[in-house]
């Protein structure tokens, strides 16, 4: 067991790769990361009220342990879309991982492969999905789609996701425009404006064609007096764009790529009827991420969706929104077991995972904690965070009297 190994290593003066205590892990990551990177990863919308609500919601549910239950052998595994997972954990889609660590998705994929846990690849990745899939090896990814306002680009992303063997298509609904992220605004920091986190686009033939067309049709405008920040941004754009850095510094294409991305990223006109567009173009299970209202869960069922993720985007979109955990029971009730209900936003510990499962989640998506591990120690840090979560979940199950994930039930919780 991980716990025993940590204590044995302590005899020889070795401490864990990254802090085990969630607040200490977060504090260590903040010290390690730049102000811009920390703000982008850790902050939420507005006054951070939804961000706080997500974690505070777990305090309102208390675990009620049962005694004289045989928990000598415990089974953390769950089945999801035909795949047996060793624990009810997935790597949530997180964009712009390069701000946390240079290896970005490569490091995370290494851990996901070794732990046999699904990694949900982000549309806003720092590594093209094909490269990430190679790093995952036999462990198949899921692909998270931000639905662009360019349907041809959407088709291309979906086609590529199928080609790399994705097990599911996760459509994020709550970020068709960016939320009012005050801490990023105070730093005037949007990574995409520097071509960070747009590797899926820069590796896509449809997008590159759009960039070329934009560059060819753009009119030359007077260049303002350069500043050190502008020069740094230009170098970042040139470094990320395909080709040599020297050639790209002389080319209009890198800047055109950023402008094209900002133009095609968002689409606020989507309705439930648009799901037919995806159904006609993929046989992958479609999972909707961002459901917070039971009425939307019912509409998802009505439209033949294969799964949902109860999520408020980690508190990054709407300030003062309902906590993800508070939304979970009502949605589980409406779904009634007819499709998997996944959960994210606020998971910080194995006990949190236990509570989410007790309230009806099939599995949870973990986000910020493993990003903190990535920032602190690369792949070993990511692995340590996920192993700590699994170890605490295992011990919580044992101490609460649940020998399997299926044995965790709502009546094991009391309101705090």
What are the main properties of this structure?
416 residues; alpha/beta; TIM Barrel; eight-stranded parallel beta sheet; two-stranded antiparallel sheet; 18 helices; globular
Descriptive report:
- It is globular, with a radius of gyration of 22 Å.
- It contains 18 helices and 12 strands.
- The model has no long low-confidence stretch (mean pLDDT 96).
- The strands form 3 sheets. It has an 8-stranded parallel beta sheet. Strands 1-12 form a two-stranded antiparallel ribbon. A two-stranded antiparallel ribbon has the order 2-3.
- It folds into 2 domains: 2-8 and 17-183 and 270-415, Alpha-Beta Barrel (TIM Barrel); 185-264, no CATH class.
- Helix 5 (104-115) packs parallel to helix 6, helix 5 (104-115) packs parallel to helix 18 (368-400) and helix 15 (294-302) crosses helix 16.
- The longest helix has 33 residues, at 368-400.
- The chain is 46% helix and 10% strand.
- It has helices spanning 2-11, 22-32, 35-42, 49-59, 104-115, 129-136, 151-163, 182-186, 199-202, 205-217, 228-240, 245-249, 253-264, 275-279, 294-302, 324-335, 350-358, 368-400, and strands at 61-63, 78-80, 83-85, 89-91, 120-121, 142-145, 169-172, 286-291, 307-310, 341-343, 363-366, 413-415.
